[in-house]
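ok so i was messing around last nite and threw this chain in just to see what happens. nothing serious, just curious
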Amino acid sequence: MKSKIASLFTFWRVVGGLIVISGLYYTYIRFTQGIGAVSNLSDVSPWGLWIGFDILCGVGLAAGGFTICAITHIFNIERFKPLTRPAILTAFLGYVLVVVALLIDLGKPWNIWHAIIMWNPRSVMFEVAWCVMLYTTVLFLEFSPVIVERFNLQKLQSILKKIAVPVMILGVLLSTLHQSSLGSLFLIVPQKMHPLWYTPMLPVYFYMTAIATGFAMVVFESYLSSRAFGKELELPLLSTCGLISVSTLGIYFVIKMTELALSGNISYIFAGDFLANMFLAEMLVGVIIPGAILLSKHRRRNRTYLYTGIIFVITGFLMNRMNVGVTSISVYTGTNYFPAVGEVAITLMIVVFGMMAFKFAVKNFPVFSADH
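result:
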């Protein structure tokens, strides 16, 4: 009896349970007393952790779905198919949780459906809203063969096979549109963003870093799944994913530095202030260190080095999105926003829900089937 109780209440389960309880409490406060009761958001700082992390980071971290689908179904590189189902599952859960985060962040979440019938084609937010809705639906269709296979629905399975390629191509197009459009959201605030981050190239940078992070997340998810569920690690494939990730970041780094030099803003890097240090940290952690690790074939084929390099890629991506969405605006404009405990608790709760959902899906559906 004691051993069963001990196995039930493990350290991480207790921590996860406490996070969920805390997050649910602050969620209740948010919906009964308003956003101001649980956050430090204001009219001066309307976008904080929930947008910077839950939305900007969440969408980017779910990019593994469209990157792997593009490789396997557009470029027809068959050897990457074993990575497809876990990547699609991660992407689908990521987008569902992004929608949950939006419902919490919106002042009037019951009006979220307005974008469906109240069109404003000139708004970037309108395009992002439609792309997220459509792409979440596409991700469900992409993952639905796993559900159909679980319940052995053969007729439905044959239908899904026929529409699989067009659906995945549509998913790649939609993801391409809104991954870049998230960067376009910030083009209207040139006076509020620091020159190290504000640039007309933001949509391109958002798209490139999403691709790099998408491949990094495939490695990250595969590594953790290997440890948690005893699955074989596809090291040669994951090594290639790591190389594509850092190569994309290398191109991004060269373009970024060239643009800063041509625009005359490169001197801001050496200003020695907080924002300059944050930019240097972002480049060091997210580009230079993982490049030094993963550009070596020998190190990429070592699971420890590969995982370490990927952790740096993902951390650098998170720093970039938080710098663009929060730091570059709040510090540069002097608003000094810092997330409240309620914001952090709700964000951590969403992350835990994502991990729980992934574990449930893997244990109850053929995510890692014989062919995947």
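not much to say yet. Residues 154-184 form the longest helix (31 residues).
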